[in-house]
Write a structure and sequence with these properties.
Length: about 180
């Protein structure tokens, strides 16, 4: 079972590092604002990886303590895998996933590096939900903008300038008021 856990480590950790290195968005030519998740997300990902590593080391040092039966070994492997997977998702969310406001529109970069552009003139609806802005364009595509408070504040100010008059005005005003209170 320790071999399976080592294989899980050997697959997830370098794979995540490679995705971060190769898929992390570089600065766009006409980039105005970039909104990322808060640093707490990266810290949480690192802590989940530390938990998984600690569990693996404990299995090496005291194998009879965590699992004495086959089902116990499977449980340990499942928790280790979940810690690594959720940690990887948190790290990819912080380092790769972001929203980039450009002169053309809002570029949404996904956790695995996929990109989708919502042109400013195509955005027809904007609403606020749980401290995030949800943008919907005429083609039915949507993206969620939130995370770092200062970057979000800059995005709200830019959106007020770039969006067509009346599109999401109430949501932008409400979000701006909330962000100015949290200063």
């Amino acid at each position: 079972m320790l071999t399976i856990m080592l294989v899980i480590f050997a697959a997830v950790m370098p794979g995540t590092a490679a995705l971060i290195f190769f898929k992390r968005p570089r600065r766009e030519e006409d980039e105005l604002v970039r909104v990322r998740e808060s640093r707490a997300v990266a810290v949480m990902g690192g802590l989940l990886w530390a938990f998984a590593l600690g569990m693996y080391l404990y299995c090496l040092l005291a194998p009879g303590r965590l699992y004495t039966t086959e089902s116990g070994a499977v449980n340990v492997a499942v928790f280790l895998g979940m810690g690594l997977a959720f940690g990887a998702a948190a790290l990819l969310t912080y380092f790769v996933k972001c929203i980039i406001a450009t002169g053309r529109g809002v570029l949404a970069v996904g956790m695995l590096g996929g990109r989708e552009l919502l042109a400013w003139h195509n955005i027809i609806k904007l609403q606020e939900a749980n401290g995030r802005l949800l943008l919907l364009d005429a083609k039915g595509r949507q993206c969620s903008v939130g995370g770092n408070q200062e970057q979000l504040r800059q995005f709200v100010l830019l959106a007020k300038e770039r969006l067509r008059p009346g599109v999401g005005a109430a949501a932008l005003k409400s979000m701006e008021a909330k962000l100015s209170k949290s200063k």
